[in-house]
Amino acid sequence: MFRNQYDTDVTTWSPAGRLFQVEYAMEAVKQGSAAIGLRSKTHVVLACVNKSTSELSSHQKKIFKVDDHIGVAIAGLTADGRVLSRYLRNECINYSYTYESPLPIGRLVVQLADKAQVCTQRSWKRPYGVGLLVGGLDESGAHLYYNCPSGNYFEYEAFAIGSRSQAAKTYLERKFETFKDSSRDNLIKDALFALRETLQGEKLTSSVCTIAVVGVGEAFQILNQETVQGLINEFEIVGEEPPPADEAAPPEQGSGAESGSSAAEQGAAPMDI
Amino acid sequence: MNVSDSTPAMNNLMGSEADSQRTLYPYVTGTSVVGIKYKDGILLAADMGGSYGSTLRYKTVERLKSVGKHSIIGASGEISDFQEIMRNLDDLILYDNMWDDGNSFGPKEVHNYLTRMMYNRRNKFNPLWNSLVLGGVKNGQKYLGTVSMIGVHYEDNHVATGFGNHLARPLLRDEWHENLTFEEGVKLLEKCMRVLLYRDRSAVNKLQIAKITEEGVTISQPYALKTFWGFSAFQNPTAGAEGSW
């Protein structure tokens, strides 16, 4: 994107009908580290890459519990993400207080989108520089939404945002049709695979990623490091073996070989795990 | 003249400026509502009387109303406040329907919303002078609760307001059970309403019964209960004291 004379103000249209400030805010999302979400009929898994600036510092928190039945993963300006998470938590708790019932996720994301839209139509404000993957439940089951700085929101079967998210999206596009009826554990495995795609050959360990799950009958929780490492080991070990002919071994091995070749196409070390 | 209320600092403690802006006492009132859970859902009963003090002034007041697809409400107390509550609830349901997203308010949500409404008004010393019964069925789950004008709320298998608590609840405690059929439920409610008719001076003999099940709401047409007054003591009431009535 190049600078031009219509990008100073969020309330200035360009002759082509664009609001550049809003588009620049979406760029900020693309610069953040990757966040991935996928859902089945009953569960949603959120996963994100958690790189710390130095060995001395702690990791940036990118996944937030919003309520027992809703969680959010962010990419972009994490400070904006924190503020919006607080808003989401507030909305959920106020609804629960009045109605003794969980706020349906579909209604929450609309409120969030409307809040984001306000910032695209006030000269004294700026758009939020964060994309949110909101995963949660309502009466009809599990849902995953993506909320943009523009104030748009979309529902997804699976999605990835942030830097190098295209690699994850490619993996998800290939596999998303299996997600609907996937089991909780297979959904998490698919999330880990997609996450690995964004690491472009770097080793996937539980210290660089965070995984969270929410489902029907399962409250939102961020999985602890040991559990995540255990799951990584489970599928990584299987991935290292030469792909056998038998069908008994589930998708892991098949996708292991495929992601290895796509990594090789991009010039990275093949299957460097 | 309460000096403390007229100083500027204390002026707004009791709600609005002039006393006529807040409810002090009710004018047109409905009497008891009785509700029970039965096998397929909930049954509510209430008569159609609107008393003006001790006068039984209005005899076709509908005190049972449906709220959305999943709930019914019965009100006793000030009728105009009930109309205000219905206006509020109808708006609530309307906005809920406008989402058109497959989610809808069940009886639990409506009950809690009502509780918040009643309690908040009470805190402002401007209550909605009603005792409400809220019942419904959603996804096979039966719900029956009550809220009073001060925000006291609870759920139970059978509830009542006003005199119903004193006259009907004891009957229900003895005779209610989990698997009442519709006919048994109605018979039980009629028994309660008959006792109330005999003993509550604000009761009138014109009642409705509301039923809610998973399928939906039905509110019956008004009808009257059979009563028996042929007691010997009533035959010659002034026998022992000529001239009295």
From TrEMBL, chain A:
Residues 246-273 have a biased composition (Low complexity). One of its GO terms (cellular component) is cytoplasm. Gene3D superfamilies: Glutamine Phosphoribosylpyrophosphate, subunit 1, domain 1. Transmembrane segments: none annotated. Residues 6-28 form the Proteasome alpha-type subunits domain. Pfam families: Proteasome, Proteasome_A_N. It is found in: Cytoplasm; Nucleus. Residues 238-273 are annotated as: Disordered. Its main location: cytoplasm. Keywords: Cytoplasm, Nucleus, Proteasome. Component of the 20S core complex of the 26S proteasome. The 26S proteasome is composed of a core protease (CP), known as the 20S proteasome, capped at one or both ends by the 19S regulatory particle (RP/PA700). The 20S proteasome core is composed of 28 subunits that are arranged in four stacked rings, resulting in a barrel-shaped structure. The two end rings are each formed by seven alpha subunits, and the two central rings are each formed by seven beta subunits. The catalytic chamber with the active sites is on the inside of the barrel. The 20S proteasome core is composed of 28 subunits that are arranged in four stacked rings, resulting in a barrel-shaped structure. The two end rings are each formed by seven alpha subunits, and the two central rings are each formed by seven beta subunits. The proteasome is a multicatalytic proteinase complex which is characterized by its ability to cleave peptides with Arg, Phe, Tyr, Leu, and Glu adjacent to the leaving group at neutral or slightly basic pH. Belongs to the peptidase T1A family. This is Proteasome subunit alpha type.
From TrEMBL, chain B:
It comes from the Eukaryota. It is found in: Cytoplasm; Nucleus. Keywords: Cytoplasm, Nucleus, Proteasome. Signal peptide: none annotated. Its main location: cytoplasm. InterPro entries: Ntn_hydrolases_N, Proteasome_alpha, Proteasome_beta4, Proteasome_bsu_CS, Proteasome_sua/b, Proteasome_suB-type. One of its GO terms (cellular component) is cytoplasm. Belongs to the peptidase T1B family. PANTHER family: PROTEASOME SUBUNIT ALPHA/BETA. Non-catalytic component of the proteasome. This is Proteasome subunit beta. It comes from Penstemon smallii.
